[in-house]
Fold this protein.
Amino acid sequence: MKEFVPFLQTLSWLIFISVVGYFLKNQLKSFLEAITTRIKAGSPLKIAGVELGQQPIIVAATADLGKDVEVIGNPDDFRLLFKVGRPGVWIKSTKAMQVPGGCVVQVTTERMNPDGSWSNAEALTFVPGVKVVDNGPDPDHNGRRLDTLNYSSESELEITEHV
């Protein structure tokens, strides 16, 4: 009889999993459909060291998007001040474009909905009397900030007038 214990134990687990699966088949089907939808939407899924889903692509400039994008004007006039988020869940970015007399500031918040689709919220405002300045020697990694316009130097006045 001792020889049959592992067999009976395995058989008991198979019967238990089958019974639970039968009673929860609708919930399991919904769960698998939700996971499939999120993976198709680009949300990463990591199980036991295996990652599924697309990783977000970081684009520093519109030119990085390749030739598939139709460009009119200069979309890189908006300069990234900062970007923060958890890829695949939510992302918030703040961009500014220098115009005569100040900056137009745009804040974008993206978040993934429970069904795997994305929602965006945008806010745009004009901030008078400021300009975009780099925070450090590497603006792509140290970010930028808004600083007060100083019309005391001729070069700053020229830059502001010709933007």
In short: The domain at 73-162 is CATH 3.10.450 (Nuclear Transport Factor 2; Chain: A,). The beta strands are 45-47, 50-52, 79-86, 90-99, 102-112, 118-128, 130-134, 144-148. DSSP finds four helices and eight strands in the chain. The chain has a mean pLDDT of 78.
